[in-house]
Structure formats: structure tokens, C-alpha cells
Design brief:
mainly alpha, about 75% helix, binds zinc ion
Length: about 130
Amino acid sequence: MDCAQVRTKLTNQQADTPEAGVLEHLEECSGCSRFAERLRLAEDLLHNHHSGIEPDAGFAGRVVAALPTSSSDVLGWAAIRLLPATLALALVLTVWALAVTPSPTSLVEQAVGDDLWSWILDSPGGES
Ligand SMILES: [Zn+2]
């Protein structure tokens, strides 16, 4: 068994103790022996890396306390986010209303221009 085969078997092994051929090679080859030791250290490091990190007992309580307490807080943020669009829509509607709505003087001018007397005489409620 050569060094590449031994290192492949060491990397892919599932059990803690290598098979007999690998053990014999490790006793004779210092390079593969160092490789096996570094591999074991890396496995231990990866295994223990996150084991010391656990949230304390008050973690969930602090997270819940940091959340908005009422729906009005959430709605307030939503309203602030929609404020620019609301203002733009109000501006567009105001300009449109001022442009479309006729003034009283323009209505009178239009009525006179359309023969005001025929409109008055032909109306159903007027006396003939
Ligand atoms: Zn070797």
C-alpha cells in the first residue's frame, strides 16, 4: 500500500481505528503518520468548534422583548414606508382635479355659447 492509498483511506474512513494495512504503513512512514495526526486534530477541531456556543436561558425572552409589542408599531412602519407613494398620488389627484373641474365662469360662458335661451325654453319644467 503506497502513501496515496493510505491517505485516501485515512480521509474516507468512518471508524476511529484504521485497518491493519494502514496501521502497518503508519508505523513505517513518518509523513503519513504526521498526516494522520493532523487529520485527527482537524476532526477534533471541527467536532468541538460549535459545542461551546449555546444561548443562555434568557435569550428567547430577549428576542421576544425586542419584537414590536403591538400591531400599531408594525402598521406605523408600513405607513412610513408608504408615505412617499401616498404623497405622490395625492399630488397627482390634486393636479388632475384642478385641471378637470370647470370654474363657474367657464360654465356660464359655455352655456351662453350654447344658446342659453333655447336651453331654458326647451327644459321640461319651464313655462312656455
Ligand atoms: Zn506514507
